[in-house]
Specification:
Layout: H1 5-26, H2 40-43, H3 47-54, H4 59-74, H5 79-93, H6 98-107, H7 110-120, H8 123-137, H9 141-146, H10 149-158, H11 164-177, H12 181-189, H13 192-201, H14 217-221, H15 223-240, H16 247-253
Helix pairs in contact: 1-4, 4-5, 5-8, 7-8, 8-11, 10-11, 11-15, 13-15
Length: 254
């Protein structure tokens, strides 16, 4: 049974109405969206049409994004299915037309949903959510910051016993924010530089103490490499934010 049937029908109806309005404004014949393989004759486009098509996400991408966001709410009580939904969203946001897709994701309040999941979930769901935020920082950094991402990512990075993959992913998202001038100032103001310095100088946790590990044998075998990535990402973030503070030196002098 498809529990998303009503949502899919609503999204298709909205796409149909949008297409009709656009055709009416441009004065071109109404050509319904085909949801099956397009024939060779219909697939023939002029170069200008190809450029226009590449500039915006396909109707299928928009529909998939809307359905995936609805599924986040439906599956909040099922971590296994929630992780699969997050993986699907990550794939959609990795599309070659990602700039327009990312903008639509922000307009649909997707950032708020992802931050809520980062604050409450763990394991693979948390890992995929952090990867989604990392993707969005490349194109919508200020919108991500406006949603309160800095404090959420700080808490993930500072959580004692956190899995190294989770820490490095959170730091990577913070690093992505640092490439926007306004976000960089906010990172410094919120004490992210001190967090990066503390992580870089910290020792790896005992594997038995990890409370949010991704349950794969491969990740456990690669623990040493994961911690190397944590310290490497923390070092890059620290450099982006102006280098280490003098707090350690002042404490030593005392």
């Amino acid at each position: 049974m498809n529990y998303n049937y009503d949502t899919e029908m609503d999204l298709r109806w909205e796409a149909d109405q949008a297409r009709r309005r656009k055709c009416l404004m441009l004065g071109i014949p109404d050509m319904p969206i085909r949801r099956i393989t397009t024939g060779a004759k219909e697939a023939t486009l002029a170069p200008a049409d190809l450029d226009q098509t590449a500039a915006s996400p396909s109707p299928r991408s928009r529909t998939s994004l809307g359905v995936a966001l609805s599924a986040l709410t439906i599956n909040r009580g099922d971590p296994r299915h929630l992780g699969k939904v997050m993986q699907e969203i990550l794939e959609i946001l990795s599309d070659r037309n990602r700039i327009s897709i990312h903008k639509e994701f922000v307009d649909l309040k997707g950032v708020d949903s992802i931050l809520d999941i980062v604050s409450t979930e763990d394991g693979e769901t948390l890992l995929y959510s952090l990867h989604v935020l990392d993707k969005l920082t490349r194109t919508c950094a200020r919108e991500v910051c406006a949603g309160g991402a800095i404090e959420v990512l700080k808490r993930v990075s500072e959580k004692e016993g956190q899995a190294p993959q989770i820490i490095s992913s959170a730091l990577q998202a913070l690093l992505g924010l640092s490439f926007d001038s306004e976000c960089k100032a906010l990172l410094i103001r919120h004490g992210v530089r001190e967090v990066a310095q503390a992580v870089k100088e910290s020792e790896p946790y005992d594997a038995k103490e990890v409370i949010s590990a991704v349950p794969t044998e491969e990740s456990l075998r690669a623990a040493e490499e994961d911690w190397y990535k944590v310290h490497l990402t923390a070092g890059r973030l620290l450099t982006r934010l102006g280098g280490p503070t003098k707090l350690t030196e002042d404490v030593d002098m005392l």
